Amino acid sequence: MTETSLPSLFDLVRRGYDRDQVDSRVNELVGDRNKALSRISALEQRIQELLAETEYPQAQGSDAEPSYAVLGPRIEKILRLAEEEAEELGCAAREAADHEYAGAVAAADRLRADADTFAADLKAENDRQSMQMVENAQARAAELRTDTAAVVPIMVGH
User: Fold this and answer.
1) How far is it between the farthest Cα atoms of the chain?
2) Do residues 68 and 76 touch, judged by C-beta distance below 8 A?
3) How many beta carbons lie within 10 A of that of residue 109, not counting itself?
4) Rounded Cα gap, residues 137 and 144, in angstroms
5) pLDDT tens sequence across 95-141
6) Residues 2-57: pLDDT tens digits?
7) Between the N and C ends of the chain, which has fewer C-beta atoms within 10 Å?
8) How far apart are CA 125 and CA 120, in angstroms?
9) CA–CA separation, 9 vs 1, rounded Å?
10) What does each C-alpha distance from 157 to 93, 151, 153, 154 come to in angstroms?
11) What is the DSSP letter of 18?
12) Would you say 23 and 120 are in contact if contact means Cβ atoms under 8 Å apart?
């Protein structure tokens, strides 16, 4: 994986992405989703309160679906449309919030996987370089032993 293929949303640190940054972003997205769901819930509750206020005179005589007929056909149609639209908006908002949440979780999972891959690649490269350094040091030590063995008989003969 190359550095240019990594998303630029988070800072690149020694072993992948800054975990605190990723966690913070995921928490922020979850908070936004929760706020949206709370707002939807509050709006749905307010709709129910308004419907209850308009249905109160009718509720005394029937447990069936509310009838706005006493308010006139035009107002009845407007209120039914508003009720349907509110329900559709609530469903759409819940779906959007769930979609955003799922996207945030998927993005966090991808970032973690990318960070893990990057860390594994970096570790493998560091291990390879370390092994190369050890091999170079061992080769140099062997050369020095050979040179020393060649020099010691000369010094003994003096």
Assistant:
1) 127
2) yes
3) 11
4) 10
5) 988 988 998 889 889 999 988 899 899 999 999 999 999 999 999 99
6) 444 444 566 666 667 777 888 888 888 888 888 888 888 888 888 888 888 776 65
7) C
8) 9
9) 17
10) 95, 10, 6, 5
11) -
12) no
Q: What DSSP string runs through 51-77?
A: HHHHHHHHHTT--SS---GGG-HHHHH
Under 8 Å between Cβ of 58 and 70? yes
Amino acid at the residue 69: A
Contact call for residues 38 and 77 (beta carbons, < 8 A): no
CA distance 48 to 68: 15
d(Cα 48, Cα 69) in Å, to the nearest integer? 18
List phi, psi (to 5°) of 60. Answer: -65, -30
If one compares 145 and 54, the residue with the highest pLDDT of the two is: 145
Find all residues with CB under 8 Å of 6, minimum gap 6, and list them.
12, 17, 114, 118
SS3 6: coil
